[in-house]
Design goal:
Strand order of the largest sheet: 2-3-4-5-6-8-11-12
Low-confidence stretches: none
Shape: globular
Number of domains: 1
CATH topology: TIM Barrel
Helix content: 25-40%
Bound molecules: 1-deoxynojirimycin
Number of helices: 14
Largest sheet: 8 strands, parallel, barrel
CATH class: Alpha Beta
Radius of gyration: 21 Å
CATH superfamily: Glycosidases
Strand content: 15-25%
Structural class: alpha/beta
């Protein structure tokens, strides 16, 4: 029975979790990340060779989704599996994905399918990857999108084209993610190509399946000046904000490639039936090299000495609200799904608190009129966190990577309760009476 104090979400709201193929499946050795991993670039020399062995254990994992009372699930389809060579379709791999989708539908779970989640086939990278904009080269991606949309028509209604274009760009700036380069001009080119691939995916899916709902996933990155009194830090922060957020929003609205003055790509305009928003943290930026990107504040609860900072990412629930509002203001008439939000931590009680704080902020945005239709927690299970390997644990379900045993964490039980009630139930709110967590800038 609903209680007066419950914070109730709109009817039909989707409660899901999100994953990506390379991070959980295992055996995705035909893509650029695998090449990058083999260079010993990953923390503790980890690799995604086995990951969560989800390719073989997906039924068990979908049963877990059911136990978490989820009615939606975001997953990605690995292009390099479906097309291991240019123009050569691996029917068996495609069928495997169809089986996965069928298993989700059997459990009454609505699938959201991502087409490009950070990994690209090696053969496509050998042809120049994101730095090659030849029509023929990009046609390969279109072929992949066409095949997926044709195959899944009638089964999958929601597609995410590209996951986090601005993070794809980082692979050409920091050198710490695939393809491990440090070249600003290449970064701008790669980002532009990624946006073009979004348009290609959108038009391809819509021409095959006009009823499908298609949208990009943008990671709203909040930036703060390290020293709020420094004009240089403030300018740098504003510039970084433009690169991470403004340029991508502008690209989708005006058909201009990000950070490229002379470009006109009208095919980019009106290419979102919904907006996917990922939100995790803020970064503090400074022009002083040693403080270039300073993760956490000195907040005593979650500061430098605190337990709860993972990856140096400090939660910023109010930032989540600001991120939602910003995307809503940019696209006021387009529905929104929170396609990712979560925290990598071993402190599961902290995960619960952070989850609840974020959901309160999400609810606030809904009550103010933002049309948010679903929330996907990142992630269902602990998984391969890219260059950080297996150390950061984002899952609602613990994975023992030696035995592949899955165990639902207390946060998973809390999420299950929330999803089942379609509310933040009073009983849960009472357990976490603290004020919304606020970093001290
Ligand atoms: C966003 C990315 O889409 C996902 O792949 C990653 O694991 C999470 N952030 C956590 O960093």
């Amino acid at each position: 029975m609903a209680q007066k104090e419950d914070i109730v979400f709109p009817k039909g709201f989707l409660w899901g979790t999100a994953t990506a193929a390379h991070q959980i499946e295992g055996g995705t050795t035909n893509n650029n990340w695998w090449l990058f991993e083999k260079e010993g670039t990953i923390k503790n020399n980890d690799s995604a060779l086995v990951a969560c062995d989800h390719w073989n254990r997906f039924k068990q994992d979908f049963d877990l989704l059911k136990k978490l009372n989820c009615n939606a699930y975001r997953m990605s389809i690995e292009w390099s599996r479906v097309f291991p060579q240019p123009g050569t379709l691996d029917k068996k791999a495609l069928d495997h994905y169809v089986t996965m989708i069928n298993e989700l539908l059997k459990r009454k779970i609505t699938p959201f399918v991502t087409l490009f989640h950070f990994t690209l086939p090696i053969w496509w990278c050998n042809e120049g990857g994101l730095l090659n904009r030849d029509k023929k080269h990009l046609e390969h991606f279109k072929q992949f999108c066409d095949v997926v949309a044709k195959t899944l028509k009638g089964k999958v209604k929601f597609y995410n084209t590209i996951n986090e274009p601005s993070i794809v760009m980082l692979g050409y700036i920091t050198g710490t993610s695939a393809p491990g380069q440090k070249n600003m001009l290449k970064a701008i080119k790669a980002l532009g190509t990624t946006m073009l691939m979004h348009a290609i995916a959108y038009h391809s899916i819509k021409s095959v399946d006009p009823d499908a709902k298609v949208g990009i996933v943008h990671n709203v990155q909040i930036t703060k000046p390290y020293n709020p009194d420094s004009i240089m830090d403030k300018l740098f922060t504003a510039f970084a904000d433009y690169c991470f957020n403004g340029a991508i929003i502008r690209s989708l609205k005006k058909g201009k490639l990000p950070l490229q003055i002379f470009s006109s790509h009208r095919e980019l305009i009106n290419t979102n039936d919904f907006i996917g928003v990922n939100f995790y943290n803020f970064i503090r930026l400074s022009l002083r090299l040693k403080d270039l990107a300073v993760p956490a504040t000195d907040n005593p609860i979650c500061g430098k000495k605190g337990l709860c900072v993972s990856l140096g990412w400090e939660p910023y629930p109010e930032g989540f609200y600001l991120a939602i509002k910003r995307m809503h203001n940019a696209f006021p008439h387009i529905p929104m799904y929170i396609t990712e939000n979560g925290i990598g931590t071993n402190d599961d009680s902290w995960r619960q608190r952070v989850l609840i704080d974020h959901l309160k902020m999400l609810h606030k945005a809904i009550t103010e009129g933002v049309d948010i239709r679903g929330y996907f927690y990142w992630s269902l299970i602990d998984n391969f966190e890219w260059e950080h390997g297996y150390e950061p644990r984002f899952g609602l379900v613990h994975v023992d990577f030696k035995t592949q045993k899955r165990t639902i964490k207390p946060s998973g039980m809390v999420y299950a309760h929330i999803a089942k009630s379609n509310a933040l139930p009073a009983a849960i709110l009472k357990k976490f009476p603290e004020e919304i967590y606020k970093p001290q800038f």
